[in-house]
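new request in #modeling-help
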Amino acid sequence: MNKKIVLLLRFVLILATILVMTYSKRGLDIASPGYVVALLYLLSNLILYFVPETKISRPITTFAVFLTDIIAISLAIYFTQGMQTDFYLIYFLIIFIASVGQDIRGSILIAIVASVLYGWLLVQSNPGISILDSAILIRVPFLFIVSLISSYWSTTMRRQLKGKKELEEFAHKLEEEVARITAKETDLRRYSETVINSVASGVIAVKGDGTITTVNPEAARVLGTTQNKLVGKKIENIHGLDMLWQKMKKAIDTDKPFERLQISITNAEDKPIPIGLSASPMTTPDTKFTGCVAILRDLSEVKELEEKLKHAERLSYLGKMASWVAHEIRNPLTAIDGFSQLLVHASDKEKIKTFSSEIHKGTRRINHIIEDILTFARTKTQVKSGTVNLRKLTREIAENISEVKIFIKGSEEPMVKGEEESLKSLFLNLIHNSIDAMDKDPKLVIEFRESNKWVVTDLTDNGKGISRDDLKNLFTPFFTTKSRGTGLGLAIVKKIVDDHNGKFEIDSEEGKGTTCHVFLPKATKK
Amino acid sequence: MNTYNPVNNAEDEGKRMKRRILVCDDEEPIRLLLNESLQDSYEVVEASNGRDALRLATKEHFDLIIMDIKMPHVHGLEAIERIRARNNSIPIIICSAYRAMEDDIIVKTSNVAAFMVKPIDIKALKTKIFELIGT
């Protein structure tokens, strides 16, 4: 109960008590002990004024206060002998006031105390009064009825007030909770955004229908645009990202992730960008949401570095090549120069023939060396996409070779995608390698096999084979075990195979022979 | 004038026996060229690698050796070293395509009479041989 109200009500009670005492039969007598009690009562109200609000609002405190009030009033009446008047009405007032601040139990207790005291006062002022006297029989039950009605009414009111207050508090708490959750959610969202935005790789997420939901700054940079221009758009409608969408869609459809795929996209500036792509499908257990998140890595720099490295390697080879060329060309040059000098003075027909032939051989050898250098020094060649029959090609080479027996076996029409001249050079190099490796009973078998993707040519000789140490250096340019080898043969073979997007493998056993496996892409049949 | 004339001197001796030259080169056309160029004045014996050259130089007498450097089996420089171990006086002319190795080789080989870089000038070679052993 509110402190101010308690103080006010008590003040009213004190005033009422003093008034009743003053107008009682005894007349005005200031020195009467009743007034002393009333004065003390007034003082207690002053003391109560300094008691903290929280303590007064407790039911036990208000109960004690009202109990004191009843006793004080009763004593005051007793001393002034006011019972002969309508003084009893003041009890109704106090019971009514006390009920407002108490529950029903407290009110009844106050009513009992008030009734007992009232009864005692009655007996004091009217000795020998009967219990059936109307003053007792009517007034005491009336005290109880007033107490019950007022406390019931005040409890109901209080309950309603309390309910309303609780509801308000609940609404307030709810508001606070909503604000807290919203703040937490915002923090979480900002945190996730920061994480995604801080990833050094590009991150792009799409829904199942291809609507872009997330793009981090790196992804936007790689794609040559801004995040705002991508989010919310359908990825399939963005120029140059067809391949990216195709791969992401596959991940969604198959529900399987894939890693480190190399694809090419065209960015917003129409520039082709090589990209390392990993993608994972996103699904929720209830399958209400499907989508895919992709990680993009810009490989432009890596590719550039690779090209630079290759260029540097080529330059280093060129240095070696210069020294090698000098040596290789000077020998036939010596022959050409020397024999032409001899030719001037030669008269014998046979000698003229021999010298001329040597000059011719020297020129051819120089030309061969130049061809080798040109093939090797070229950067990756765009192979003219023709169709070559390898059986026909190797047969033509074999017809011009008399040193060894060449057997051609396997597929009748091994057709590959490629450039005839390059492939001729490839097989010529391999066949000459075999010829150089064979001494006794030379035999070379060329066999063709076909798989779904490849035409494989196996060239098996019964030569001296290759040692383990030499196998390591097989493709190193200018490495040769032959006294007159250029050291470029296999490097050229490798290059031609690479240019054709093929594969090259060698199996060799020292003393027994060597088999070369050339894998070339199969030509599609028309 | 009282001058020494190696031509006349050599001619006198040549009537008895031609001077012998060992040509060692793995290139067949080079051996043929040297043989054709020198056979009129000298007896030319050919070896196609260092090992054969060593064998011949040990067995037979030669007045001069023309040696290539890059050769199979036994390298030219190794062959020269081993020949020198037995015969310190025989003049040796190196005919090599390696110009870059010239200094290095001269340091390494003792008593090399001449170093000629291919393509060699036949006339210059003939003059050098004549200077060294006459005919």
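bot summary: Helices of chain B lie at 6-16, 28-38, 50-59, 76-86, 102-108, 122-133.
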